[in-house]
Specification:
The protein is mostly beta strands. It has a single domain (3-221), classed as Jelly Rolls (Sandwich), CATH 2.60.120.560. The protein has helices at 3-12, 178-185, and strands spanning 27-28, 38-39, 50-53, 57-60, 67-69, 76-84, 89-99, 102-111, 150-157, 160-165, 168-174, 202-205, 212-221.
Length: 228
């Protein structure tokens, strides 16, 4: 069984835990081998840099700029496979809003951690970028070779934020806590009023001038659900 199929099996086998959910099924954000779910920050169709390859792999090669979802999401469960080039840097932002001239949001960091041994832990893969470092020490994290896809998961629900990397829970924080407020005040986002506490926003795939690959981008809304 291929790795791609096994991941899909895991995603599709997750039970639906409540009848009052706004939506109970996963949406493939790369459905139809197209970028119809995505647009540029200006609202245009995605035409440069980001390309679907091999039927189901989204590849950023060269410069394509950041891209955002056409829909906004509140509470959600997002699964995705990813890999990045050697010394590459990228990320998935969520609950993205406009602050002045910038689109900003909470971020699941993606990078080649081995290429940046001196990087602060708050900037390592699966960290909540610039706010919280991974809860597991680096020698306990399940990294895969850069040539292989890793699997990430983000669950945002009832002010609780969780990040997984290859099945390991890496981040578990609450956006309504004093700890979260302190983290924002000690970050680059300190001057962005209400940063990270909005309850809805878009997803963003970032362009940090590195090649990055995504596949199996599946999202399920959890608005109104009991905790999972």
């Amino acid at each position: 069984m291929s790795f791609r199929i096994s991941i899909l099996s895991v995603v599709c086998s997750i039970p639906i835990l409540c009848a009052q959910c706004e939506a109970q099924t996963y949406t493939n954000l790369l459905s139809g081998a197209s970028l119809s779910h995505w647009m540029t920050p200006g609202g245009d169709a995605v035409k440069e840099g980001w390309q679907i390859e091999s039927g189901n792999v989204l590849h950023l090669s060269g410069r394509g700029g950041n891209i955002i979802t056409r829909e906004e999401f509140g509470d959600f469960d997002l699964w995705f496979d990813y890999r990045v080039e050697e010394k590459g840097n990228n990320g998935i932002k969520y609950r993205v809003l406009k602050y002045g001239d910038s689109l900003l949001g909470l971020e699941y960091q993606i990078q080649d951690d081995g290429g940046f041994p001196d990087m602060h832990e708050k900037h390592k893969t699966a960290a909540l970028y610039d706010l919280f470092e991974p809860s597991l020490p680096i020698f306990e994290r399940q990294y895969k070779p850069l040539s292989e896809f890793s699997t990430g998961r983000i669950v945002v629900q009832n002010n609780r934020i969780r990040h997984w990397m290859n099945g390991q829970l890496i981040i578990d924080e609450c956006s309504d806590s004093a700890r979260f407020s302190d983290a924002v005040q000690n970050s680059k986002f300190r001057d962005r009023e209400g940063f990270g506490r909005n309850h809805k926003g878009r997803l963003m795939l970032t362009d940090h001038n590195s090649d990055v690959w995504f596949r199996n981008l599946y999202i399920r809304r959890l608005d109104g659900c009991d905790s999972i």
